[in-house]
């Protein structure tokens, strides 16, 4: 059967009713003929662990299966979502387990505990190192064995605060029994008619798959993968909450960089996203901050050029950068411009990277406006553990941009020509972008284009996530 999370297997002091054992008796009264207060129960799973379990319909089968478990002849493998990524791809864990010396509701690796052996292998590692998908085989059946052993190696299960795992997006410990192999105790002449037993077994399997009142989705049903004589191999993909937790762990912000030439409307597009509560970053605003009194840019320029661009105030302190003087000097001296860029651009890229990492797990999109992204050889987004930035270009013909710059900023023809010379030609710049938004019309046309861009960005983010999830789900569908 495929036990859903949240269902206790058998009665205990804290759960006298409503257990799997009670449900089994309600559907199969003949189980009362078995000995003990756990009729049919051959082994157990923790309440909040989902997955494959064996239940015996007859006492003969129960004893035969219990013998296989006692002799460690049953193959049991779990899927687990663990915190972090182990250094080794696979390893064997042999550590004795016993009651925690001070916390009696917990188990722990303790000297003198019962011998316990597990083997784990990493099926998928989050590129950021936040979590991993583990396949854990257990050779013994100690209480909380997988949870304790994973904590012991420093990678507790997500959603398992009892053993040090953060709750995060998980609503339970992310542990699912997904593979089970055993020798089926086929009926003998001393038992009832073989065909009758098979019919009863099939009836039990159909009922057990429907234990979840919502009804199991087909992809979460257990399946018999191999049947070699008496040896049966079962596999059961994890339930939806396990998949949803993996998806939430993989969900991350799509970093977007806006670029374009002066006057194209980059700041207008940035403001469009700001008004919709997406986190935004402006390289121009960061430079302005660096140029304020006491700013890092001010100190660097004064250290290299004295008071040429940073005049001292009456009080003797460094005043703000004289941006007009600096701009004129940069436009007239390409070597000076390259020198200043080499001094200041690393500060801007660092601020942009901090912005990106800050919003990595909290926003669908993070938007950075970086006019010289292509020209400067920016290292923004070079961290391969994070998604590659998507480059959005804002396109507008030079004639329109020139009029806007004259009217809105009061730039002269010389200033406009100088600023244009710093950047790639618009055709080359737009060809290098992943997406391009046109801003040659009025504000209504711009807003329509911006809304279409937003839809496209969110769809790209969704497709990237689903591509990774397809790979993850393929692991438990084909292994």
Molecular structure report:
The structure is a single chain. By secondary structure, this protein is an alpha/beta fold. Helix content is 37%, strand content 18%. The chain is built from 14 helices and 16 strands. The strands form 3 sheets. Strands 1, 2, 3, 4, 7, 8, 9, 10 and 11 form a 9-stranded mixed β-sheet that branches. Strands 13-14-12-15-16 form a 5-stranded parallel β-sheet, sandwiched between helices. Strand 7 (117-125) and strand 8 form a beta hairpin. Helix 5 packs across helix 14 and helix 8 (296-305) packs antiparallel against helix 10 (334-358).
Fold topology:
Blueprint: E1 2-3, H1 20-27, E2 50-52, H2 59-70, E3 75-83, E4 90-94, E5 97-99, E6 107-109, E7 117-125, E8 131-138, H3 145-152, E9 175-183, H4 194-209, E10 223-228, E11 231-235, H5 240-250, E12 254-259, H6 266-274, E13 280-282, H7 283-290, H8 296-305, H9 323-332, H10 334-358, E14 365-369, E15 390-395, H11 398-408, H12 413-421, H13 426-431, E16 435-438, H14 443-478
Parallel strand pairs: 2-9, 12-14, 12-15, 13-14, 15-16
Antiparallel strand pairs: 1-2, 3-8, 3-9, 4-7, 5-6, 7-8, 9-11, 10-11
Helix pairs in contact: 5-14, 8-10, 9-10
Q: What's the SSE pattern? A: EHEHEEEEEEHEHEEHEHEHHHHEEHHHEH
**Distance linking N and C termini:** 20 Å
Gross morphology: elongated
Quickly count the domains: 2
Number of helices: 14
């Amino acid at each position: 059967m495929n036990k859903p999370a949240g269902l206790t297997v058998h009665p205990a002091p804290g759960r006298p009713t409503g257990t799997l054992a009670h449900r089994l008796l309600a559907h199969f009264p003949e189980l009362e003929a078995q000995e003990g207060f756990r009729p049919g129960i051959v082994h157990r799973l923790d309440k909040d662990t989902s997955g494959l379990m064996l239940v015996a319909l007859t006492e003969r089968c129960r004893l035969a299966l219990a013998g296989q478990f006692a002799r460690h002849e049953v193959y049991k493998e779990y899927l687990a979502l663990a915190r972090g990524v182990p250094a080794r791809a696979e390893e064997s864990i042999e550590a004795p387990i016993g009651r925690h010396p001070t916390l009696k509701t917990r188990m722990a690796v303790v000297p003198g505990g019962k011998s316990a052996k597990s083997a784990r292998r990493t099926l998928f590692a989050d590129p950021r190192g936040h979590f991993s998908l583990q396949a854990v085989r257990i050779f013994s059946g100690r209480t909380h064995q997988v949870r304790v052993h994973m904590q012991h190696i420093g990678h507790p299960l997500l959603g398992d605060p009892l053993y040090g795992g953060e709750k995060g997006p998980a609503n339970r410990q992310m542990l699912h029994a997904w593979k089970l192999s055993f020798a089926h105790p086929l009926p003998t002449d001393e038992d009832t008619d073989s065909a009758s037993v098979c019919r009863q077994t099939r009836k039990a399997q159909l009922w057990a798959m429907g234990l979840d009142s919502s009804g199991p989705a087909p992809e979460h049903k257990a399946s018999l993968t191999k049947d070699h004589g008496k040896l049966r191999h079962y596999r059961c993909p994890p339930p939806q909450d396990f998949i949803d937790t993996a998806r939430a762990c993989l969900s991350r912000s799509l970093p977007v960089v806006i670029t374009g030439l002066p006057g194209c409307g980059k700041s207008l597009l940035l403001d469009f996203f700001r008004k919709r509560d997406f986190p935004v970053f402006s390289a121009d605003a960061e430079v302005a901050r660096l140029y304020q009194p006491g700013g890092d840019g001010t100190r660097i320029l004064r250290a290299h050029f004295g008071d040429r661009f940073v005049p001292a105030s009456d009080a003797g302190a460094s005043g703000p950068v004289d941006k007009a003087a600096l701009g004129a000097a940069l436009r007239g001296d390409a070597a000076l411009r390259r020198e200043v860029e080499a001094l200041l651009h690393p500060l801007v890229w660092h601020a942009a990277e901090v912005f990106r990492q800050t919003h990595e797990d909290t926003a669908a999109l993070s938007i950075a406006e970086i006019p010289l992204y292509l020209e400067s050889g920016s290292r923004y987004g070079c961290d391969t553990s994070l998604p590659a930035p998507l480059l959005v270009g804002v396109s507008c013909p030079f004639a329109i941009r020139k009029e806007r710059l004259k009217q809105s900023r009061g730039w002269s023809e010389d200033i406009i020509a100088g600023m244009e010379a710093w950047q790639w030609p618009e055709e080359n710049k737009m060809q290098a972008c992943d997406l391009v938004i046109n801003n040659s019309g009025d504000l209504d046309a711009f807003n329509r284009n911006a809304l279409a861009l937003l839809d496209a960005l969110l769809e790209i983010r969704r497709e990237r996530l689903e591509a990774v999830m397809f790979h993850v789900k393929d692991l438990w569908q084909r292994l």
